[in-house]
Amino acid sequence: MSYIVGLGELMLRLSSLDSERLLQSAMLNATFGGVEANVCVSAARFGLNARYVTAFPDNALGRKAEELLLGQKVDTSCIVWKGKRLGLYFLDMGYDHRPSSVTYDREYSAISEISHADFDWDKIFYDAEYFHITGVTPGISESARELTIYAVKEAKKRNVKVSCDINYRKKLWKYGKNIWDVMPEIVEQSDILFANEYDAVKILGIKSDLDVDGVINDEEYTDLMERTIKKYNLSSVITTKREVKSSSYNIFSSKAIMNGKLYKSKKYDINNIVDRVGSGDAFVGGILSGLYLFDNPQDILEFATASSCIKHTIYGDWNITSKEEVISLMNSKGSGDVSR
């Protein structure tokens, strides 16, 4: 089976306990997370080959991060051991009507200072079918932007399909570039795009009079995304839909334009959310895995949506579930009954 390859930054995640505010107590939960790594972990757990590419400092944190990736059966053979520090992020866990909040500490991290010349691109893309990248990595630093664009072009040279998630992070992009100046060049090299209406209009420059901060109907969505597909020569555009009742209660679904047709998933009422962080990456990992597991686009979308639904119930960035568990939810009415 061919590899799914992801490039990005894996960070040490320090989060508040239960419903406490960040630093309310003297203790924090320590885990690791980062969008592209989260996707690779999901793919590996679903039985696919997944290779994660990054730069780690050769210290206790870097070695622990690799150890945990290996524990999830992710290929770490292309990680570059260079740099002085691992990026950090602090998560103030939301509760009820108090939203979660992230504080980044990524400046001068290993991936933010690495060069494309430090990587073996033939080895990275050996036996690869999909290369996943997001708008997070080019938002870290100028060198990370250059690395991302170089990597995408290297993938296309080798006929590796590119999966791109816009994943706009307002708290990044502090080095002089804006996301709308950078992402179009990356999306031009992509095949599968994870983007919503806002991304299409505000970041990718698709002209529209729609209120992309409001609710649009299926016909408007289809027209907008078909024009996005045409402009950037994409195979599909996929997005999640989330109705936020509170930090603890979301109604979650997804939709996609695949093979020139609109597909919509069933909706999940997700109450008592444990951890929303990483749920979008669980969805992306579900789509990329679903492309291997199913022939029907509807099944691919339902598998990814069920995968994301389960992630909301799991603490940490990684979707610690199985293909069988996701398929069971996908084919059920979501009752949450005991499996015996």
Automatic annotation (TrEMBL):
Database matches in Pfam families: PfkB (PF00294)
N-terminal signal peptide: none
Any one Gene Ontology molecular-function term assigned to this protein's record: kinase activity
InterPro entries: Carb_kinase_PfkB-like (IPR052700), PfkB_dom (IPR011611), Ribokinase-like (IPR029056)
UniProt keyword list: Kinase, Transferase
Residues annotated as domain Carbohydrate kinase PfkB: 1-311
Keyword ATP-binding: no
PANTHER family tied to this protein: 2-DEHYDRO-3-DEOXYGLUCONOKINASE_2-DEHYDRO-3-DEOXYGALACTONOKINASE (PTHR43320:SF2), SUGAR KINASE (PTHR43320)
Family affiliation: Belongs to the carbohydrate kinase PfkB family.
Protein name, per record: Sugar kinase
